[in-house]
Design goal:
14 strands; Dihydrodipicolinate Reductase, domain 2; 20% strand; single chain; binds NADP nicotinamide-adenine-dinucleotide phosphate; alpha/beta; Rossmann fold; 2 domains; seven-stranded mixed β-sheet
């Protein structure tokens, strides 16, 4: 396997998971600024476990050494490498946003001109629990964004059961690694520490992705109001969704909707009535924890999900998808509980 962008937060999380995966051998890892250096010199915790030399991206070399490539590059950088690898017959799991939106016009509106639009139709959106069968047969998987993973997993059962009316409000809080290993001033310690702020309210690039997937699930156009926030922690996303239901359901019947929908899903944890998830209970794990409560006084359902943005929201879900693509047990390399505390 190859990992492009192995020095980024999503890329190094892929290495952390793949080195303990019993069926995987990592053959190539890439970086732009650290090419020629050992990855364990950049991340000493990998010493003895992954001491490969980081390389620049050379498509022919990658294709000759690997069967599948994980691309953990920035959006708009990823698409050219992915297209070149696909031309050489490789399987690719792309963690960027480049292949998540099926319509090139939507991509143009939210990102820019797509340089490989011919691949958009064949790319399978990699939200494992929702698109398991298609992912198993895919050659190109567009791994979901971190916010869309938490939001869509929390809302999917309600849309499948056609229980939702009105606009869903999604109020999500993310740790700082969601923005990558950046040197931006906004993400420096003194800006983030002891601070809690909203950003890109109603205009965040994950909105079209959430709407595309919920519309597909609901079989009708769905719009959402999305308010993301940055919180002073490294990992984790807590998403709180406010939903108007067509019919009033008691807690037990709601729990049954969720439990039936996610029956047998190894990484989805439906919490008991009255319990709500916290980011610490998923940190370092591939779990998505879901809790909810209906408030009859205001006739609204509140659904709350917690994921680790770097695991279920990125590298863990990518490995879950790889397992499906090779017909391996879905949990291979991904078992392990969250870090406590
Ligand atoms: N962070 C998350 O929670 C998360 C969740 C879901 C999806 N994603 C997506 O996953 C991708 C990676 O995210 P990240 O957070 O890991 O970002 P990151 O920390 O900024 O890492 C980006 C990686 O790409 C490499 N890179 C950057 N520009 C490049 C170029 N022009 N040519 C070749 N390599 C280049 C970097 O290499 P060097 O710095 O070593 O040169 C680094 O390894 C992004 O598309 C992101 O949207 C991230």
């Amino acid at each position: 396997m190859a990992v492009l962008g192995a020095t980024g937060y999503a890329g190094v999380e892929l290495l952390r998971i793949l080195i303990r995966h019993p069926r995987v051998r990592i053959t190539t890892i890439t970086s732009q600024q650290y090419a020629g250096k050992r990855v364990s010199d950049i991340y000493p915790s990998l010493t003895g476990q992954c001491d490969l030399i980081l390389e620049a991206i050379r498509i022919d070399q990658i294709a000759s050494r690997s069967d599948l490539t994980f691309a953990a590059l920035p959006h708009e950088t990823s698409m050219e490498a992915v297209a070149a690898l696909m031309e050489r017959g490789m399987r690719v799991i792309d963690l960027s946003a480049d292949f998540r939106l099926h319509d090139p016009k939507t991509y143009l509106r939210w990102y820019g001109v797509h340089k490989a639009p011919h691949l958009l139709r064949d790319a399978v959106y990699g939200l494992t629990e929702i698109r398991r069968k298609e992912i198993g047969k895919a050659r190109l998987v567009a791994n979901p964004g971190c916010y869309p993973t938490g939001a869509v997993l929390g809302l999917a059962p309600l849309f499948v059961e056609k229980m939702v009316q009105g606009t869903v409000l999604i109020d999500a809080k993310s740790g700082v690694t969601g923005a990558g290993r950046s040197s931006a001033v906004d993400l420096s310690f003194s800006e983030v520490n002891e601070n809690f702020k909203a950003y890109n309210v109603g205009v965040h690039r994950h909105i079209p992705e959430i709407e595309q997937e919920l519309s597909r699930i609901a079989k009708r156009p769905v719009l959402v109001l999305f308010a993301p926030h940055l919180v002073p922690m490294n990992r984790g996303i807590l998403s709180t969704m406010y939903v108007e239901l067509k019919k009033i359901l008691d807690g037990e019947r709601l729990a049954k909707v969720y439990k039936d929908f996610y029956r047998g899903d190894p990484f989805i944890r439906i919490l008991p009535a009255g319990s709500f998830p916290q980011t610490k209970e998923v940190r370092g794990s591939n779990d998505c924890a879901i809790g909810f409560r209906y408030d009859p006084r205001v006739k609204r359902l509140v659904v709350i999900t917690a994921i680790d943005n770097l695991v279920k929201g990125a590298a863990g879900q990518a490995v879950q998808n790889m397992n499906l693509m090779y017909g391996w047990p879905e949990t291979e390399g991904l078992r392990g509980t969250a870090l406590i505390p």
